[in-house]
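Let us work through a complete example step by step.
Step 1: write down the sequence.
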Amino acid sequence: MQNFLWVLMSIIAYVGGLIIIIRMTPRLLSHTFDEMFFMGAAALDILGALLAFGAIVLTFALFNGAFPIRVLNFLLLLGILLVTARTALYCIRPRAGASVVSRALTGGYGFFLAAASVFYIVQIFVSK
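Step 2: predict the structure and record it as tokens.
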């Protein structure tokens, strides 16, 4: 029962992290990188990534990397990959009123999260 509660809380944290990434990353484009709002929103965006990746780490460690959990983590990482790649592609496109540096920072952040997701997808099935 306790493992079920940990997994449930991690899934809730995962969904909350993805919602934070989806909602906050595009808002970074309307501000320049040296404004306080940009820094606060970027910190919140990093918190969203920590929540999303933390759910994967928790379930993997809780069940010692059992195969069904590896499949669950693969699906969760695939969700992170899709969300961050879509968000990064949205942020990198040129638009009026968006700072070039802000677009580059938010797009780079999204691509780095997508690359981390791909790296952990490979590591889940390579590690023993």
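Step 3: interpret the result. The chain has one domain: 2-126.
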